[in-house]
């Protein structure tokens, strides 16, 4: 069982580094053009769809600006999903 935990923690480290924090708009906007496209959004939310963008696309641009992205991220609750994925690998008995 200890081996399983160690392997799981190691496998999660790379993911944790990318997902432990709520994403910043500047980080998600990979090409820094001021708009988050569906492809960019899917880097942090693989199950996101154009419908998700459209729901928060106030100016109907088809992409998310800074404000629109913040509104989306609050609704999507990236923090909660990241925490469930990481599952406290540094303190496995602290639950
Ligand atoms: Ca962009
Ligand atoms: Ca927009």
Automatic annotation (TrEMBL):
Coiled coil: none annotated. The keyword Signal applies. The keyword Signal applies. Residues 1-20 form the signal peptide. Keywords: Signal. This is EF-hand domain-containing protein.
């Amino acid at each position: 069982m200890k081996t399983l935990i160690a392997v799981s923690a190691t496998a999660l480290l790379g993911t944790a580094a990318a997902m432990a924090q709520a994403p910043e708009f500047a980080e998600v906007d990979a090409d820094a053009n001021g708009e988050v496209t569906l492809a960019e959004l899917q880097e942090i939310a693989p199950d996101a769809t154009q419908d998700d963008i459209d729901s928060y696309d106030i100016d109907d641009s088809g992409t998310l600006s800074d404000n629109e992205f913040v509104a989306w991220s609050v609704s999507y609750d990236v923090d909660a999903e990241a925490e469930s994925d990481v599952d406290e690998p540094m303190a496995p008995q602290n639950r």
